[in-house]
Amino acid sequence: MKFSKEDMTSYVAILVIVVSIASIGMTFTGYAAISSKEAVVNVTVETSAAINFTVALVDFGTGSVNMDETGATLETGETPLLGSWTNEPAALSLENIGNVDITLKLYANAAAAAYLGGTDPLFQYNVINKTSNDNACQGAAGAWVNFATTPGAEICDPLSWEDTKDEIDIDIKLYIPVDAAIGTKTATITATGEYTE
Amino acid sequence: MGKKYILIFLIIFLPLVNAGSVGISPAYFNEHFEPGLKKTFTFNTFNSNSEEGIGIVLEGDLKEYANLSKSFVQGRGQFDVTLNLPEKLEKPGTHRLIVKVFESKNLSEEEVSGVGGIAAINAPIQILVPYPGKYTESTFQINNVNEGEDTTYELEIQNLGTQEVTIQTTINIFKNNESGEKILTETLEEMTLKSKNILNIVDAINTKDLEPGNYYVTATIDYGTKVFLNDTFKIGQFLVDIVDYSYQFERGRINQFDIEIENKWNTPITRIFATVTITDEGKVVSDFKTVSVDTDAWEKKNITGFFDATELESKRYLANINLFYEDTSSNKLVAIYIQNPPKKESNLIYIIIGASVGALIILIGFIFLIIKIVKLKKLIKKRGK
To answer: What architecture (CATH level 2) is domain A51-195?
Structure first.
């Protein structure tokens, strides 16, 4: 029996294909032979304390005390009284974005006299739970309180981290006496959170 | 008086308008004091805005023994606090090293305008110096359950003294409050707790046979010194109670009828509504259905319906309030009162008084005029003679 060159080439090609398929099969078999093993995934979630001023600025704009009045009252979310200011800015808003309850303290870089000047000025805050965040802040005053400078005053103990009750509004009220100094008035309010059990 | 201007220029710049946040993880460390302890604590800090910086400072009574690896991080990053404690801290109790992170906004004087909020977080590293001798601190907490269930409690005792303690714990349950009847006592096995160790017990108490209601619990921890802890818990029953209701209404209008309900079950009860039937001497004169509400465990809530009193007389009626919830119902028969609307103040009386006074003044004037005329006539006659 004689094989032509073409026949030889065909047989070799078939042999290569068979060997290849066999080796693939062996490889597959090899994988299949590995038994399933249990995997363990370890993860540790660290405590994280974090807060976010979602509204970080109160801007009452520019204005003056009305003629013959002793002073004007500006309050977030309210129409200014006895002054020509026209802005009705929203309250500062703060959210606990960590995964632990925190105590929250608030202080300003200046109290009313240093901030506004004049006769009997007022620089006050009122902490309330944000809408649909009932019981977010235990101890929320719900009343106007004068700003203090450092170390400040505790306003929530605790401020919850649970998503449905972790947001508060900090309303700001200013009473600008007619003899307050003219110019730009700047105040920085620092809210400091600390983990609490 | 000239017009005085008090100008408040509040220039809004982006850095202050943007929400500002800061965070730190872990939120705290607790460590027991060891003489000469040298330890490094690693923190991660973050700001939601990667463009913003975070300032880091140390505060607290252990500040002098600590160092920071960096005092500023851009956006987010890691830093170390290395603590080198002395051989001795005189005062027993908790000493604190505060790691403070805060939004660091590099703004010029002109840019920082208005009333702006800055976020800051304190992460305390608390070092506990053991109290000399035997000293523990404990917490106790017990949970609400439903009738037929066992309650569970958690008791944690920390040995914060220098000496080992042997602890005997007794738990007492009283009906209603501390002066109520003692109904159950459980004595726990005596345990030994080494210095700096914490004992945490989570266990159940057999309350299956107790009635629904309020209970007061004391845990007495005796380690030579007695410590008294207390808590309360409730055993719930599947009931929605009518706590309060509207009972005064106005004739001739549609009135709001509020019913305050209380879920007495330690689980939410949903789809609660009421039907109210108003009767007068047994005859139904009106009825209505309230909205449906869901309640959480132990929650009090108002449900509201509207009661048409346009055709009803002012008098006392009976209202049968039927509450429906999860295939169950309960009811309450109550008295309600329909009253006449408040009378509007009439001006008629003032008109009559005014008219009378006016008429009197005119009459007096008329008489005065007649007298004058008569006197004048007499004078003319005299002069004529």
So the answer is: Sandwich (2.60)
